[in-house]
Amino acid sequence: MPPRDANWIDGLRGIASFMVVCGHLCTALVPWLHSPAHDPKSAPHLFQLPFFRLAVGGRSAVAVFLLITGYVNSIGPIGKSRAGNTDAAFNGIARSALARSGRLVLPTMIATFITWFLANINAYHMTKHVDSTWIRQGWHRQEPTLWAAFKSLVKAEVETWTIGWNDYDGTQWTLHLFLEGAMMVYITMFATVLVRPKARLIVYAVLYIYFWQLGEGLAVGALKGLNITMGMFVAELHNHYKDSATSLLPSPVPALMIIAGMFMAGYPQDSPQNAHWSHVMQKFMKTITCQNTDVRRYWDHFGASTVLLGVFFSRNARRVLTSPVFNFLGRVSFPVYLLHNTFIKSVLTWMIYLPSAMNPPRNEKGEQMDLQRGTTTHVLIAIVVFYYVLYRTAAFWISHVDPICAKVVNAATSWAYGEQQSGGGRPILRNGHVEKPKTVLPA
């Protein structure tokens, strides 16, 4: 795998990517854990309790990704603006805005092609008959003709970025939000490069209030706008405090912020009224948000933002997130995000349901019933193997697929700029310049 500078934002992204996979595994195999308890009178399971439930919940991870998008894509322009180097700031914004689409769209197209190919060789046949509703909903038929298969591929590739849905991989619904969020950053940076930092803070405040009251739109308000704006604000803090940020607050304060953020990020996806603590959170958020808003997204935002700020001010948390394990998780986070649903519908499903598929259960009329998963031990072993295969494949992607995509994007942008093409390609996920020379942060 090519070398890459360790940084705490990479480690945070790696955790978020891992949480997304955990959340989808929970939805597929134990969806009842998304509630804080089975009913208001029942005792909760261990992984339904605050903090523990983060191990099987991935909703707040989407907020983390958007926070990072706002942070990484604005940190360079803000630094150049504060230094008075406005020409370099405008040049960086222009180049990033042009290349960003390719850096997101091209790998996503490849991932969609892979899941399309598997569907059309009938690799997902077993998913149609399993006892997991979420996996079964991810089934896609094998198209009857090659022309029909080609049209369905084009439709999926286009609609991922137009309506935010991919028939072959529903988990890609967030990707257009990341692209829109990056463009929102570039527009905001373009509009504020010439202003003083205090004036830019006012702009962030206005944007935040605007998106808060726009909360009835799940993707426009609390999910995208608030997190992107907060990410830009933290980038402003980075450029203001620089290396002194980790010594500003007494050491217990950032730790308490991280703990509080984790608690808020654990707000349940389903049935918050089943537990007192989550019911109180639900009622409180409804009093400060617009009518009929999805309050879950607001708690996701609060939780993820508080964790981000806690890590930003904590030297110890940054040290942990730059360790080799978290650095690796961060490097492979994007292909993990792109491929995990494909692997759940194929590798994991085959391992869990193959014994039942070899002897399909039938009812009294002889009709085939849903395939049944194996024992708990069988499922746990299958999950371990699934994670190993997923992360090994993601490492292969970073080593072999990523550089090819980078060369294609660099060649296209070089042609657009009328420049001579340089030798090597820059890794796709390295985007957005930080203050230190020749150091880059992935977006």
Automatic annotation (TrEMBL):
<dbReference type="InterPro" id="IPR050879">
    <property type="entry name" value="Acyltransferase_3"/>
</dbReference>
<feature type="transmembrane region" description="Helical">
    <location>
        <begin position="173"/>
        <end position="194"/>
    </location>
</feature>
<protein>
    <recommendedName>
        <fullName>Acyltransferase 3 domain-containing protein</fullName>
    </recommendedName>
</protein>
<keyword id="KW-0812">Transmembrane</keyword>
<feature type="region of interest" description="Disordered">
    <location>
        <begin position="420"/>
        <end position="443"/>
    </location>
</feature>
<feature type="transmembrane region" description="Helical">
    <location>
        <begin position="248"/>
        <end position="267"/>
    </location>
</feature>
<feature type="compositionally biased region" description="Basic and acidic residues">
    <location>
        <begin position="432"/>
        <end position="443"/>
    </location>
</feature>
<feature type="transmembrane region" description="Helical">
    <location>
        <begin position="54"/>
        <end position="72"/>
    </location>
</feature>
<feature type="domain" description="Acyltransferase 3">
    <location>
        <begin position="7"/>
        <end position="361"/>
    </location>
</feature>
<feature type="transmembrane region" description="Helical">
    <location>
        <begin position="12"/>
        <end position="34"/>
    </location>
</feature>
<feature type="transmembrane region" description="Helical">
    <location>
        <begin position="104"/>
        <end position="124"/>
    </location>
</feature>
<feature type="transmembrane region" description="Helical">
    <location>
        <begin position="201"/>
        <end position="223"/>
    </location>
</feature>
<keyword id="KW-0472">Membrane</keyword>
<keyword id="KW-1133">Transmembrane helix</keyword>
<feature type="transmembrane region" description="Helical">
    <location>
        <begin position="375"/>
        <end position="398"/>
    </location>
</feature>
<dbReference type="GO" id="GO:0016747">
    <property type="term" value="F:acyltransferase activity, transferring groups other than amino-acyl groups"/>
</dbReference>
<dbReference type="Pfam" id="PF01757">
    <property type="entry name" value="Acyl_transf_3"/>
</dbReference>
<feature type="transmembrane region" description="Helical">
    <location>
        <begin position="334"/>
        <end position="354"/>
    </location>
</feature>
<dbReference type="InterPro" id="IPR002656">
    <property type="entry name" value="Acyl_transf_3_dom"/>
</dbReference>
